Amino acid sequence: MDWASYAQHDAVGLGELVARREVHPRELLDAARDAADRLNPELNAVVARLDDRAERAADVVDPGASPLAGVPYLLKDLGVGIEGVPTSHGCGLFRDTPMPETSTAVARSKAAGLVIFGKTNTPEFGLSLSTEPRAFGPTRNPHDLRRSAGGSSGGSAAAVASGIVPAAHASDGGGSIRCPASVCGLFGLKPTRARVPMGPTAAEAWNGMATMHAITRSVRDSAALLDVAAGPEPGDPYAAPPPDRPYLDEVGRDPGTLRIALTRDGDVPSDGACRAAVERVARMCEDLVHRVEETAPAFDHDALRTALLTLVTVHSAAQLDQIAELLGRELQPGELEAFTEALAAQGRPVPGTEMVRMRDTILGLGRRFGRFFQGFDIWLTPTLAQPPAKLGWLDPDGVDAETLLTRHTLYGPFLPLANATGCPAANLPLVWSEDGLPLGVMAMAPFGREDRLLRLAAQLEAAHPDAWGITTAQ
């Protein structure tokens, strides 16, 4: 299969070709690898290749075993792994350290017949909204090579937006699916807390703030991938409410008339283009007979920001201690990026009682949003408060930590709210600037209601096919 034909299909579409035996998984793998060979030197989206493993996997695919059987796929190089294969977490110290086990989500992807042929770039330990790790270099946005592909799933987003793959694995602890999806013009769904298990060993990440799923071009690809990965496993500390039906069945299903809350600005003002983008999507929703009301949930933004920063810094300190234990020595200054070291230093002296108080603040937000969503079905905001950032603006070694924290707040003030509450949220790729840059709009739904997001997103995708998910392959 030539690349032009390959890039016209989403993942489910490629799976259908495999199921009908019109194409062999090896042909799809060859098309994906050819695309990576041609495009990746400029983008720096893929940082490791697993060609031999992928060839073996492609040769034993059972066509039609799942809607995604035989489809090429990439894993984000952070937080998940394949037994015997290194996961760097965006850090040079782990470039060659093999993982001791295969992650549950990865095992489920392989069982569904996805052909994993590489790993994608990520910031060091996923701590940034821009993928510019010292260890591997920056990932460039396919729509403008001077700009960031977002973070922390920037490598995955660039690979999808460029047409290397139709979908790629991603994770989200503070916007790391939705930010890259926004700046690369893709659909990015952060699932409900505990929808996708973190096992087989880990129980949660960042006190339940982090989860994993995928970045895709189409809504149905996201739904199909969620069907593959979702569901509890033995030993989970908690689980998300079970869905009424497979998520793929929600695509095309009538969402009914939704009550949509519209918010243009948080406590940080949004850029005019981002405000205009969410207003435009709100009008699209009204055209589909949904009811839109301008309002916002009330909460203490400063208290929440303090609590979130405390959680991240304390976890960073604990992670560095674990790294030192694994290495059998103390870490030396400069071995990690300056931003990583600064976050850990800030979290190390935090007392346990303060950590408990900050966690209670975060959990309290979930209660507030639970009440808010009793009156609304969807909350619509800008995904980012500014257009896609240029590379270097969030450089973890080139910008001091205090400035980086301020810039993250200015860039993505709405992003961590879905992580703190555990609610599902998705980037809708419907608006583009005059100079061709994506301007994402975020839809958040009540806890456990990915079905509602998928129905609305699929409805908008069908109503506006010329705007949805434009990729450089097209």
UniProtKB/TrEMBL annotation:
Molecular-function annotations in GO: catalytic activity
Origin superkingdom: Bacteria
InterPro entries the UniProt entry points to: Amidase, Amidase_CS, Amidase_dom, AS_sf
Region (Disordered): 128-156
Occurrences of domain Amidase (ranges): 27-454
Pfam families cross-referenced by the UniProt entry: Amidase
Family (UniProt): Belongs to the amidase family.
PANTHER family on file: GLUTAMYL-TRNA(GLN) AMIDOTRANSFERASE SUBUNIT A, MITOCHONDRIAL, TRANSAMIDASE
UniProt-recorded name of the protein: Amidase
